[in-house]
Automatic annotation (TrEMBL):
Gene3D superfamilies: Fe,Mn superoxide dismutase (SOD) domain, Iron/manganese superoxide dismutase, C-terminal domain
Binding sites annotated in the UniProt record for Mn(2+): 34, 86, 168, 172
Protein's name according to its UniProt entry: Superoxide dismutase
Domain called Manganese/iron superoxide dismutase C-terminal: residue spans: 101-200
Function: Destroys radicals which are normally produced within the cells and which are toxic to biological systems.
Species annotation: Desulfonatronum thiosulfatophilum
Coiled coil: none
Assigned protein family: Belongs to the iron/manganese superoxide dismutase family.
Zinc-finger as UniProt keyword: no
Lineage of origin: Bacteria, Pseudomonadati, Thermodesulfobacteriota, Desulfovibrionia, Desulfovibrionales
The EC number(s) this enzyme carries: 1.15.1.1
């Protein structure tokens, strides 16, 4: 996310594809609300919260690291982390994605999970079992790959882990298209939208 030099404020990252590019897995209507309303609201709220504070010229990562776990700064953390998470989520998806990753990433997956199917099962279980709002992640710990889930706005990099991919399981990510069928949404995202090239870039 870039800041406007004149205003020292964050701006909404454009989607890396047209709003209808992820159909039929994720509809244009969902992206209009998810990106244009929810993501935009996090950006707008963050800018208001940091205006006139020591965070006005800091990066998202710096803001998140500094406010993580601090109750008096929880509003700033939540909005900054949600801006970061959504930016990462949009890049974790691509039209006609999913399928099998490249050999380099596949070797890491098989070495860490035993098989690609076991990895898919683990990622799906993390996403489906996250109680309430949150995220499912593929992360790199320096030695191997892991699947994890975080609640609300939490991010893996504050725990020393490197995010490679994420799936948003807040209800606004899927409810217009799937209602309460989160498992169906998760399965479709894994099979048809995951951006393996993005994951490999993040691992380097």
């Amino acid at each position: 996310m870039e800041k406007s030099p004149a205003q020292s404020s964050f701006t909404l990252m454009p989607l890396p594809y047209p709003e209808d590019a992820l159909e039929p897995v994720i509809s244009a209507k969902t992206l209009q609300f998810h990106h244009g309303k929810h993501h935009q609201k996090y950006v707008d709220t963050l800018n208001k919260l940091i205006s006139g504070t020591e965070y006005v010229n800091k990066s998202l990562e710096e803001i998140i690291r500094d406010t993580d776990g601090k109750e008096d700064k929880s509003k700033i953390f939540n909005n900054a982390a949600q801006v970061w998470n959504h930016q990462f989520f949009w890049k974790s998806l691509k039209p006609n994605g999913g399928g099998m990753p490249s050999n380099a990433l596949m070797e890491k997956i098989e070495g860490s999970f035993g098989s690609f199917e076991d990895f898919k099962t683990g990622l799906s279980e993390a996403a489906v079992s996250q109680f309430g709002s949150g995220w499912a992640w593929l992360v790199y710990d320096g030695d191997g790959l892991k699947v994890m889930k975080t609640s609300n706005a939490k991010v893996p990099f504050t725990q020393g882990l490197k995010p490679l991919l994420t799936i948003d399981v807040w209800e606004h990510a899927y409810y217009l298209d799937y209602q309460n069928l989160r498992p169906k949404y998760v399965e479709a995202v894994i099979d048809k939208l995951l951006n393996w090239e993005f994951a490999l870039e993040n691992m380097r």
